[in-house]
Amino acid sequence: MDDSNPSDDVVLYDVADGVATLTLNRPDRLNAWTPEMETRYFDLLDRADDDPEVRVIVVTGAGRGFCAGMDAAVLSERSRSTEPRAARVRPLGYPLQVRKLLVAAINGGCAGIGFQQALCCDVRFAASDAKIASAFTRRGIPPEFAASWLLARIVGAGHCADLMLSGRAITGAEAAAVGLVTRAVPREKLLATVYEYAGDVAANCSPRAIEYAKTDLRADWSRTYADAEQHADRIYDRPGHREDFAEGVGSYVERRPPHFENVAPRPRP
Known about the structure:
16% strand
């Protein structure tokens, strides 16, 4: 990918120790979402997903916010339009297709599309004082982009109804209490906590097993228990599973770090 385009700086990209960090980078606007940011972010997700040296992806925001939602100028323009919304090249649920562990580090304000994008991550950590809100009903719109579908599966129907219908803001600490985020920590400790978690996964977990597990976690939402059990039995025939299983057990018995193979880039159109 050519990184010389001036619009590239709306999302920054860095890789270290098997962890790619994508930083939404419009700090003067609390990283409000724009079409340019959307394109850049999704392109970088593809880049990290295809990089065999990347095993975990972290997304966070520059400055005081994670993502305050759609940029006000874009919102204003769309609110006056009478035309149907144009179809996206990639849906806003695109991050759900990423094969690698995707971790949100919610460092500050997170609302609207920013909230929905955090829900698309596999795991979320937050600063204890971060303000998190769906905010949709407070902008005169019902929950968009399947956000209510995602949220209900993370926090349950009761908490989902509260947060979606009221649109109220909660802190990172309250988000942890209802299960919206895995852990809330002081802001100054957030990235260190996330990187400790991500580094452990990158060093010790099979990339192929994570890919399979992510697919199964979502598919199991609509399976019966018996179907899920039968599907799990079939995993033994998937490519690379037996090799990873042998390496995982061997490294444990021999008390050494595992050496799992990276996943190959995915064919793209």
